[in-house]
Design brief:
Elements lengths: L11 H15 L1 H24 L2 H34 L2 H31 L1 H16 L6 H8 L3 H25 L3 H9 L4 H34 L8 H10 L3 H30 L1
């Protein structure tokens, strides 16, 4: 025992490894099922995005951007995506987008129900909040370790790590949005005989949509940043280009791949923000 240690070191590392080994031994079939589902979803998104001609997707995204941010945003989208294609990063950009869409979809599917549950039950919120704090403060690289152990190398552990890292904003802001619904509106809906689900779907969720979409927006941005980090464990896409450029000290290629990531990030950010504003209108 070191002189600086007052008590003997807790074998926390051994405990964690024992737990992980036990999960792998008894729940291996579940991890295989999850891996197949996530891998299939990524492949589906990737097949769609890479199967459609680039010019058709550029036109589609430009039209969506015009609806979201009018002329300036549409012009940025058209030039930005055209630049990505010109630099030769189109296919890798679509692979990155497939990973982000998968991670974002899972974050929403899990995060919104958990956020609603927290808003409806203070005891659940007290339990979930420290877990969210842990998920958001733990260094992103740490999530790669258990993801590799349970799911191996490749896109699946990258998506899993991205979901863990990106989900908290969706849960937090869904909880916040529902709790901020004025009490008089809830009382009015109850006075008209609304059921629990009618009150939730007709009153609380519509009013909370702007706040919820802000959380989804943040989750997508975090998922994009984590997908880039996940290139270290074999996830494809622009992250792999950045990682290769860093390890080989290719500044130019790294800048090009980074620029493609920035263009995707701005496009996803503006589109998700516009959805929240339009729904609120």
């Amino acid at each position: 025992m070191s002189q600086n240690q007052l008590f003997q070191k807790l074998p926390l590392d051994s405990w964690i490894e024992t737990i992980v080994d036990g999960l792998e031994e008894h729940l291996g079939f579940l991890f295989d099922f999850i891996s197949a589902g996530i891998g299939g979803t990524v492949d589906l998104f990737s097949w769609i995005l890479t199967g459609i001609p680039f010019w058709a997707l550029i036109i589609l995204f430009t039209l969506l951007a015009y609806r979201a941010g009018k002329v300036a945003m549409a012009l940025f989208t058209f030039i930005g995506l055209l630049l990505i294609q010109n630099l030769g990063y189109w296919e890798h950009s679509m692979e990155t987008l497939a990973l982000v869409l998968t991670a974002g979809l899972i974050s929403v599917i899990i995060g919104i129900p958990v956020g609603i549950w927290c808003a409806k039950n203070d005891s659940v919120q007290k339990v979930v909040t420290p877990l969210l704090d842990f998920m958001q403060t733990m260094p992103a690289f740490v999530y790669l370790i258990p993801a590799i152990f349970f799911f191996g190398l490749g896109k699946v552990p990258g998506v899993i790590a991205s979901v863990i890292f990106a989900m908290p904003p969706t849960i937090r802001l869904t909880n916040l949005g529902i709790r901020q619904v004025p009490a008089d509106l809830i009382e009015a809906s109850e006075a008209f005989g609304s059921t629990y689900w009618q009150k939730l779907t007709k009153v609380q969720l519509p009013i909370a949509k702007t706040t919820m979409m802000a959380g989804i927006n943040q989750s997508i941005m975090l998922a994009l940043s984590m997908v880039v980090i996940a290139s270290m464990i074999g996830a494809k896409g622009l992250g792999a280009d950045v990682y290769r450029a860093v390890t080989q000290i290719k500044i130019g290629e790294g800048f090009e791949a980074g620029l493609a990531i920035v263009i995707l990030a701005i496009l996803l950010d503006r589109l998700t923000q516009s959805v929240g504003k339009r729904k609120n209108a």
